[in-house]
Fold each of these.
Amino acid sequence: MTQQTDPKPADASSKISDILNHGALNLALAIGYRTGIFDAMDALGEPVAADDIATAAGVDPRYLKEWLGVMVCGDIIALSRNEAGQERFHLPKPYGDLLTRRSGNANLGVYTQEIPLLTHCAMEPVIKGFCTGDGVSYSHYPRFQAFMTELANAKHRQVLVDRFLPAVENGKIVKQLQDGLEVCDLGCGEGVAALLMAQHFPESRFTGVDVSREAIEIARQEAARRGLKNVAFFALDAVNMKDDPTFKEAFDYVTAFDAIHDQTRPSEALESVYAILKPGGRFSMVDIAAHTDIAGNRNHPMGPFLYTVSLMHCMPVGRVEGGAGLGMMWGKEKAMEMLSEAGFQKTEVTEIPDDPFNFHFFCQK
Ligand SMILES: C[S@@+](CC[C@H](N)C(=O)[O-])C[C@H]1O[C@@H](n2cnc3c(N)ncnc32)[C@H](O)[C@@H]1O
């Protein structure tokens, strides 16, 4: 057993104070991102009066002043005085690079929304879950679901077609998609990935499946709006596909982006994947890059954040009706074990270009 040294009381106290300050800053950062204050300050580009920021961002000056207090005390926004001794506020460029809508792939502003949104949606049902063990249904998370789609939109648009797919089997899958494959995207949500792939690979046919009727309706409307004829969407529980003759050995390639660990019956969902693939068909599962044991994640740079998102969303939605409740941090070892139990004899696990949060689990039937 390894020896663990307990922290001194003073260390523990200053750590908790830091956490209180950082938690408060996360909330204020989320407000600054959502209201566009960071974008406005970034565009102003120099130290200015609070009223000028309020005008540029279109926000109330009194609320802004209180918010500036948080940001200055948190060392995010720089405070100076002009020659007349009046206060001037400035967003340093390194923060503008991370907290504005121009940040692109480096945008961390969008992630500041996550914990406040989850607190708003699920604090009470999750606390109740600590007593009852019950899951929390998706209906508690309407704004969080919309946020996840926004996140998926940004991620898939930047990574899927240009970086992820070309790396699968050293470009072989892209060549085959250009020639024409039958593809199923499982847990497709509002269809962001399936729609993008359908647009880029007109010779292939895409089937998006999700248990959420609302998400499928949105995906269908978007396909119609874009005039795409090579994509269809079905509101189905992935688990039922394995017993549906329509889908038996129907696909050359199945994808699941962040869509297995949330499911209530993930083992059966993976059995479905195996059943709907043609012999020799391939499966790309993109899921969180973590270890199954907590100890393996101790040095993960975003460990507490990811476990919290899992605690507040992934694990409880997966526990509904006695579900497995794997949680987002189910980890590589558990994922490999479950893929093997579903029938996949060999799984290759690789990192994904520009996506440090996920692994690519690649299997062949
Ligand atoms: C985190 S979202 C990922 C959505 C999408 N793949 C993306 O990358 O944006 C997980 C999705 O899995 C879906 N899902 C959960 N359980 C499911 C099930 N049993 N069958 C099919 N889809 C399911 C949810 O409705 C949700 O849309």
Note: Residues 148, 152, 187-189, 192-193, 209-212, 215, 237-239, 257-259, 262-263, 269 surround S-adenosylmethionine (CB under 6 Å).
Amino acid sequence: MTNAWPNGRAFAFYDRSEVAISQLGEQLQALGARLEAALGDVRDGAALDDVRVRFLGRSGEITALRRAIGNLPPAERPEAGKIINAAVTGWEAIVASKADELQRRALDTQLEIAIDVTFPAPPARSGSLHPLRRALEDACGYFERRGFAVVLGPEIETEYYNFDALNIPADHPAREGLDSFYFGDGRLLRTHTSPMQIRTMQAHPPPVAIVTSGKAYRRDGIDARHSPMFHQIEGLLVAPGIHMGHLKGMLTGMCRELFGPNQAVRFRPSFFPFTEPSAEVDTTCPGCAGTGSAAGDPGCKTCGGSGWIELGGSGMVHPGVLRESGYDPDVVSGFAFGVGIERIAMVQHDLDDIRVLFENDPKVLAQLA
Ligand SMILES: [Zn+2]
């Protein structure tokens, strides 16, 4: 017989006298039909739990039926228990599959919300080239437009190309292990981009006009001006009649194109084994516009108060280097220079510390874009 709880829900109540093993199958079938009908109305997890408790819970209908079989003759009880257990196993599977279905439906709903095509899209963020890449392309671009070819070379070099061919003898202090990263087999991480001068001249007869750029490595500590890995642009022009005037004109032109028309360029006599004469190249400090003092501070942080920023080294290619490359120094002459890309970026963006170029904080990079 079927009764109703005060909340109106139907439930089965088994009078002990109603239970007989011959009727058990029929009773289970009726119970199963009501369970499935109740599941049909379930729309969420809470309602499903409710149904589970009502039919299969400790105080649910199936428990009432189990209790009622205590009234059967003892010989029939095990059989009745088996029949009930088999039915319960089937119902539990039905409830579990309903739970799966609810979960799938909830996920589908979430996905429908997630792909709402009418939802306003977040604003697109455009990327930009890294300041070092831009400085490198700006500098290379200046020379390319003047007929220089861009060549690239290996970062792992032999001692021959990195030192010997560039007139840097075996006893030169620059070759000490303290300054360079050696592999222990006669190779090292190139300490400058100058090996490409030799590789180019050995591969091509004069005249040559090239720029090469990329990474170079030295055992420097990291500070505001130095890093063990840095970038250079190297230039080489060899032809009959090339002199210092061509070098000064080209580098001054580059600084004015990259930094502005009023940029001053200074050449300081210096020494490099592979050029003669040699000069260091300085340009007007962007922090103080060359005055040496910035924002009331008498010692400009960017240039240390000198008013100048050193860009790199330059000079006329040493006759020994030309000869080593198979060129005749009596017929051709040439200039060469190596300029730090970090230095160019410092001047372009008025930076007083190159470390911001390697830390790659997206906020800082966005400011420099
Ligand atoms: Zn300054």
Note: The CA atoms of residues 165 and 324 lie 6 Å apart.
